[in-house]
Amino acid sequence: MAPRKAPDAGRRSDRSRRAIYDAALALVGENGYRRTTIEGIAARAGVGKQTIYRWWPSKAAVLMEAFLDMAARAAGQTAPEGDEDADSRNGGEYGIPDTGDLAADLKLVLRATVDELNDPLMEAPTRALTAEGIVDAALGAEFVEKLLDPQLALYVTRLRAAQEAGHLRADADPRTALELLIAPLTHRWLLRTLPLTHAYADTIVDYALGGLAPRP
Amino acid sequence: MAPRKAPDAGRRSDRSRRAIYDAALALVGENGYRRTTIEGIAARAGVGKQTIYRWWPSKAAVLMEAFLDMAARAAGQTAPEGDEDADSRNGGEYGIPDTGDLAADLKLVLRATVDELNDPLMEAPTRALTAEGIVDAALGAEFVEKLLDPQLALYVTRLRAAQEAGHLRADADPRTALELLIAPLTHRWLLRTLPLTHAYADTIVDYALGGLAPRP
Amino acid sequence: MAPRKAPDAGRRSDRSRRAIYDAALALVGENGYRRTTIEGIAARAGVGKQTIYRWWPSKAAVLMEAFLDMAARAAGQTAPEGDEDADSRNGGEYGIPDTGDLAADLKLVLRATVDELNDPLMEAPTRALTAEGIVDAALGAEFVEKLLDPQLALYVTRLRAAQEAGHLRADADPRTALELLIAPLTHRWLLRTLPLTHAYADTIVDYALGGLAPRP
Amino acid sequence: MAPRKAPDAGRRSDRSRRAIYDAALALVGENGYRRTTIEGIAARAGVGKQTIYRWWPSKAAVLMEAFLDMAARAAGQTAPEGDEDADSRNGGEYGIPDTGDLAADLKLVLRATVDELNDPLMEAPTRALTAEGIVDAALGAEFVEKLLDPQLALYVTRLRAAQEAGHLRADADPRTALELLIAPLTHRWLLRTLPLTHAYADTIVDYALGGLAPRP
DNA sequence: GCGTAACCGAGACGGTACGTCCAGTCTTTGA
DNA sequence: TCAAAGACTGGACGTACCGTCTCGGTTACGC
């Protein structure tokens, strides 16, 4: 193996990294992912192309990190101070509320997800990243591990709590249950089959929980 | 506008069209969609580049048609003769069986879907097409209209029959119900979160129908 | 061997070739050879880079052809009509006059050579080409074959005539004699040791012919 | 102007300088001048790039010094001890012998020059340096001043001695005479028109001296 | 003998040009 | 009279070096 000696991360320029994130997100938002080029990102960031190639293996990887950074920052802004580490670890979510009413709590969260997916600012980069991950297994794995799984874990936690409280069948698999809730929203959003609304989110919760309620 | 005279479809060479389909599918299968080029398809098909540009607006459009053609052929092979038109209109499916046992019928069909998604031969082009449609709205619309919707319509038909037979809540929306069944499979397959198995398909049917059964 | 199929010269665009010659000569004249880039030539010529790479193996080769073309055109302009082929074959020279006075004839021609070498318009590309040929043997061979040898052949012809006329020692080798005349001029010009003047040319002729005159 | 303080030559690392010379000569010999890079020299010499940029203005300047150093060392090896300064000042030559037979003495020296030019070890760097000097006037001047002129001066000395001894026409200009001897060899070597042999050197001496002999 | 100022190896940085690949258009040519 | 073949402009790719800068570390001079 010729392991093409890794660059010294200690000397990395933070200024450049930030500028690259900003440029990447801006360009993808403006022109779409396909028309965004590494040369374009470098130019917009005022950075040499090599500085991108030194630290990222692909355009998709740049966007992924930029995206994660954006999420972490967004979280950091609203988070209580001194708790930044926790935020960045779980993708910027703070957990699903537990008011005792599982359906209401899920509707709240899923409606927020609907709004997020419909936010035109997030749409372009999120679609780009997802599509890239569908085709590129390695990138997809990273996407799932760093972005998706942390969010899904919150549902598992909430659903387990519901099971313990007797609001959910004890023999239901939380992971599968979660997919029953999330997948339909993702499906509509990704494939643009039908509009993605709050009402749809509510219906999904109702239908899904119907089959998961404890036996009478 | 200079209305650049449309090509005369009557004179189109069938031989070339077929060769282009074959080359496109073969190359996407071998090298992936990203590394497949129009020049490469033309060369492999023994066709001038212009012959591709004359009839299709993009690489994705070529692949889409090649894909539809493949589906139509696959259907034509097993279909009763003299019924090819009907097949190609519904994506090659012949409808969901109705044995009176809704859960069993759905499991049968969804298990077949799982097998199809796990078929390595279909995987590359299907993923490519889906990913492209996620990013390119026009292509996505075509994908949904020509490939997805015809298949989903079969579920709607079956579910409506179930409602009439009293096996499904009368106030349930079949379209939403269908998404509850299909979306989780699609989710696992597209995002590669967890393995996609027959057992998973069965569980989804059980959980989903649980909430859609008629009230006792 | 993978002989990277040669392009079809019959379809070559004359317009592009000419534009490339012009751009190459202009840029070398303006910025020098080192600062002239293939990208720059392509941009100035309004031509894709690939059109250069398709037809020439290197920047030096482009310049060489541009140079030969310039010489051929310059010759064609002053030459009697209907004789263009002959001109381009001997580098644009029409032969060394033969007035019967060898020394006078040589001085005439060498003074003209001095003027040509001192012409600032020719200087940059000629130096560039020569320097490149010194380092790149293949290019040097082409330079010698296409530009230098045809000119030197004229001297050989004139010197042989002088031998036949008894104005030059019969046992003198014309090729060596020619080098005795030409090399000192080239030496001064290439290495810029001392100024290159008409007087110097005259002196060289006198000194050189002194040793080559027929024995009394 | 910001007079960017000159580096302190007193602290200069001799070890690095030597390593850079060695690396430069080795790389030019192995890969040719064009493919030799400053980064490559630095890497091979185990030296930071800045150490090169601190002390030399260009790749050509490095090679020039390396070349001069090599000449000085080569001279130092065979020179009588305690006389190193004199050697390095005249390019490593010890003067042209004066046996009283001018032609013989010149043939001896020119044959040695032929051998040196044909020495494959010297060839690459010498050609590179010469070619560079042809295009870059400043470097060319340095080349002439430091390498060429000291050697040519030896010829002038010997030729003047010949004049005083009555072996050469009194009105002949030694500088021009020298060029008549040297230039043809240089010409063949630089332009690779014809092979450069001892016989050729002899012929040149004969032809040139023929015209410079004292009038009978 | 002790800062401190310079050199040093190392290598990241903003850039420029390289030579290649392919997109999409236009032109020629042979069947 | 097509369509194959393929040359064309254009532009991004990923690489190689350029010349500058900054980082620790290591001399070696001057106080």
> Could you name the CATH class of the largest domain in chain A?
Mainly Alpha
Radius of gyration of chain A: 20 Å
Can you tell me the CATH superfamily of the largest domain in chain A?
Tetracycline Repressor, domain 2
String of helices and strands of chain A: HHHHHHHHHH
* CATH architecture identity of the largest domain in chain A: Orthogonal Bundle
Unreliable stretches of chain A (pLDDT < 50, length at least 5) are: 82-92
Give the SSE layout:
The structure is a homotetramer of 216-residue chains.
Chain A (H helix, E strand, L loop, with lengths): L13 H18 L6 H8 L3 H7 L3 H20 L5 H6 L12 H17 L1 H16 L1 H28 L9 H18 L6 H13 L6
Helix pairs in contact in A: 1-2, 1-4, 4-7, 4-8, 6-9, 6-10, 7-8, 8-9, 9-10
Chain A binds a DNA duplex (31 and 31 nucleotides) through α2 and α3.
Fold and architecture overview:
The structure is a homotetramer of 216-residue chains. Chain A is an all-alpha fold. Chain A has ten helices and no strands. In chain A, α1 packs across α4 (59-78). The first copy, chain A, is elongated, with a radius of gyration of 20 Å. The termini of chain A are far apart. Chains in contact: A-B, C-D. Chains A and B meet through α7, α8, α9 and α10 of A and α7, α8, α9 and α10 of B. The first copy, chain A, binds a DNA duplex (31 and 31 nucleotides) through residues 7-8, 10-13, 16, 37-40, 42, 46-51, 53-54. Chains A, B, C, D: This is TetR/AcrR family transcriptional regulator.
